[in-house]
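Could you join me in thinking about how sequence relates to backbone shape in a protein? Label the sequence line and the structure token line clearly, so we can match residues to local backbone shapes. Once you have written the record down, we can walk along the chain together.
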Amino acid sequence: MVEELVQRMLNGELRSLARLITLVEGGGEEVPQIMRLIHPYTGRAYCIGVTGPLGVGKSTLVDGLTSLLRGKGLSVGIVAVDPSSPFSGGAILGDRIRMQRHALDKGVFIRSVATRGSSGGLSRSSRGVVKLLDAFGKDIIIVETVGVGQTELDIVEIADTTVVVLMPHTGDAVQTMKAGLLEIGDIMVVNKADWGGAEYLVSELEAVLRQNQRESWWQVPVLATQANNNVGIDALLGEIERHAKALEETGQLSLRRREQRKKEFIRVMEQTIRDRVLDLIVKDEGMAAFLKSVEKGELDPYSASLEALGGLSWEPRRR
């Protein structure tokens, strides 16, 4: 069934794409096979990450960028990472209530995915969904993170260009963002620039970024936008295009993607090992005994882990 779905998706069938995304979100045993089958068709799309705190207008910015990209004849995939419902585990904000003017555009595919408890602003399945959209043939993929604050650093492991969005009147935004988001932004945006304090925030960000320039080949720009009024969106797209060109000309795009693949490999390995250990705790009497000893306080977790892992035989799981 998976092979047929993938082939139909590669032939442009939206229903198969949606079904494959659902399977990837579910995290079932089909996922490795799906990723293996689509791998030869990935690596062609350009990925833009949009991150920042809740309420800064990320979705409106993404909507405006999508309109401009479609005007250039580019197809767009949007992955909107939403908080998980505490009842169903699914995304609270569905794709149908986002970006309504693009709903009937066949060149735009929008999908909301739930965080399902993941930190870092992305869900575990986000990377797989991006790969599916890439294999499907989307030119540009925009990933909008959930908007939880300083923990949204995972976006750099998936995006070619990361846009960090802030707004005035959120306290000392520069001090708040120093903990993470300032370090990952390729482009900084102060949205809702018609609010008081926007000019001050722009100048303060520019000063901080000049003092802490990360790359010799790129000075992070700070842009003022009013997404609701469609002001500054064209300038933002221009900076994204300029950054993409700089990445290509300096060879940094290839280096970034190599590092992303490395981190993804380590992340998948960690999750695989974790899943197998949890499975062993349920099925293996020896492992269960170690757990009981730790629970009773008879053995410390470090000693128990070393002893338990030392006795394991790590054989590949057969599917």
